[in-house]
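User: I'm new to structure prediction. If I give you an amino acid sequence, what do you actually give back? Let's try with this one:
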Amino acid sequence: MDRLRQRADFLAVANGTRANSAAFVVQRRLRDDDRPIRIGFTVTKKNGTATERNRIRRRLRELVKRLDVISMRPHHDYVLVGRRAALTRDFATMLDDLRSALHRLDRQPKPPRREPQSELNGETPER
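Assistant: Good question. You get back a string of structure tokens that encode the predicted 3D arrangement of the chain. For your 127 residues, that looks like this:
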């Protein structure tokens, strides 16, 4: 498993499917390449001080380490967005929440593919 590091990758995953939990949100996006699963972690400043945000991020990283890789689909990017509840929520409960969120993501229908705006208006795109 690789890590997501660039902002553009995080933004791309944000446009994919998502599943909510009390302690985090899981976002997922299918890629068109054969690279391994990539995962990113983010916690916004509204979740507390830097030490609290780092603790949330560490707990999320540990969740993914303990999760069986089979739960995650190949050729996908995942982002875990931490919430403040991740500080106090029981770790075993969070692990169950993550498994449940990944299962819900698998059951969601694939979003329809968006056509560029110019093609929707009957115009041909200029190149």
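You can read the tokens as a compact description of the fold. Here is one thing that stands out. The mean pLDDT is 88.
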